[in-house]
Amino acid sequence: MPDVQFSNLPDVQRPLLEKFYRAYRSPMRARGEAQVWVARQADIVGALCLTPIAGGHWLTGLFVAPAERGRGVAAGLIAAALTSVEGNVWLFCEPELRGFYQRIGFVEVQDLPQELAGRLARYRHTKPLISLVRPAD
């Protein structure tokens, strides 16, 4: 993975992120206030968003191009992005991804900030999700 670069995507380049998500028919989207991070080779091969919330950030939109999966892109991208934020970082994921996130420092959590608890309850109407947090150092 030495040829992959991780960086914060400037707001003026956000259309590139939307193009990346659409190219793979991903339902992911970047919210306006989110900090966007990308993994690049010649083009974007992975992305995630960090949205500020009370007490930390909410990680959403993590997507890695299928050809790059299993090469450490997601873990590297998360590590790079989390160096830029303070506080806890929460995320929702499908239960089968629990092990991946636990290996990089996330733990399952039931007690969520109010704004995330409501979202998780709504999302669970259509899919099984768990909530995880990477506690602040």
UniProtKB/TrEMBL annotation:
| InterPro entries linked | Acyl_CoA_acyltransferase, GNAT_dom
- Supply the Pfam families for this chain: Acetyltransf_7
Q: What is this protein called?
A: GNAT family N-acetyltransferase
**Which domain of life, per UniProt?**
Bacteria
Source organism of the structure: Pseudomonas petrae
User: Gene3D superfamilies attached here?
Assistant: 3.40.630.30
Q: Where is the N-acetyltransferase domain?
A: 1-130
